[in-house]
């Protein structure tokens, strides 16, 4: 057991006017299972790279351990190599027998190491990389969002695996994973950083109570400041009036008023002293109030404008199946479901069962030239897929790699009002400094927020969201949950976040290969 001590850490990217970290200090234990939480763009991945020595910084980081990082970077030309050939590339001095032992704990056959890495599914790649990561014996591990793109079964496997390990920092926005796998949390708040014992739920409950107390204290101070300002203004007015009453008194002519002038002066002095005391109390109240709300998450209410269609049933699948051209087996077959207005239907199943293919089929089925759209996707239909005529669809793609250029260009391409789009991004907690950047420089979470903001701004009959929450921070997930429950749009969704699905879904369709 040893400590990782961070002292007075300050870091900023060259060309940026804002510091990512400023005079940050904390300590963590290398035996902890540490969950790392924070809004998108707050610097979680940056901090992991600082630990790895990727960037220069001011301050100090002292650690008596060697760090290793997930996910490993695999180049395009290495995708043709089998996993066994890539072990040394991923982790120096990696021993094959240790990797095989870890793969068994992950419920995988070691034959996966002898297949080309590019042919493995997201879940298989993740498990191979985790097996390599944990094959070392003295490393402190930095694990960056291991469950993105994984189906529910793979998430459960990874969750059980990580729960049995220790000595890592886990960056994740999956509340279920964090609750099962961590015993401490490191949180990047709005202006501070804190380390706390417990899992996500215990931290969230503590934060909820702390925020409620801060809001109550802030309100109390605001009222007290208001009362003191009113009393000070009244006393100041009396003092001014009293001071003016001395003017014009002639002590020779007005013998009856002799002694009144000193009395008035003394009375005025007392009132002015009283005003100064009140002003000092106001300053104290303001100082006590300052900082109360600096870390309070005030989540803005989003808006959505779903359209009403003249038909109640928008999609009907009966014995439906899809097969790709030149494929020997269908992606899925004999699928049956209906989607009515106001329903939020979630597609559930393991990776490769055809969830995203079905989303593409619905998009193709709503296009003016259906046959051409299916040919473009290289999809062949079997059975019946009926979509209501004239459906307006708002689509969120799971892929963000196409996002390039400025926000203005993005809005022009999609016919969005730029100022309103930026306002929605601000509600999703994207900093204004990001608006001038090129979108390819955004973090993955920020890119996903751009796609979600565009979808929320688009009035539609049907919202097709394909893994919309990958990389999205916990606070924004809760914000979106609240919106969907309030507006009740018609949705067809692929999403593996268990808590999101349990909160939002009105219907779940199980899909199998």
Describe the structure.
The radius of gyration is 31 Å and the shape is globular. α3 packs across α4, α7 (200-244) runs antiparallel to α8 (260-289) and α9 runs antiparallel to α10 (370-376). The protein has 513 residues and is of the alpha/beta class. The mean pLDDT is 88. The protein starts with a strand and ends with a strand. It has helices at residues 44-51, 83-90, 96-105, 122-133, 152-163, 175-181, 200-244, 260-289, 355-365, 370-376, 407-414, 418-427, 444-457, 474-487, 498-504, and strands at 3-11, 21-29, 33-38, 58-63, 66-70, 139-144, 168-171, 184-188, 193-197, 313-324, 332-340, 344-348, 379-387, 393-396, 462-466, 491-494, 507-510. The chain has 15 helices and 17 strands. The relative contact order is 0.10. The strands form 4 sheets. It has a 6-stranded mixed beta sheet with strand order 5-6-7-3-8-9, sandwiched between helices. Strands 14-15-16-12-17 form a 5-stranded parallel beta sheet, with helices on both faces. The longest helix has 45 residues, at 200-244.
In short:
The protein has 513 residues and is an alpha/beta fold.
Topology, element by element:
Layout: E1 3-11, E2 21-29, E3 33-38, H1 44-51, E4 58-63, E5 66-70, H2 83-90, H3 96-105, H4 122-133, E6 139-144, H5 152-163, E7 168-171, H6 175-181, E8 184-188, E9 193-197, H7 200-244, H8 260-289, E10 313-324, E11 332-340, E12 344-348, H9 355-365, H10 370-376, E13 379-387, E14 393-396, H11 407-414, H12 418-427, H13 444-457, E15 462-466, H14 474-487, E16 491-494, H15 498-504, E17 507-510
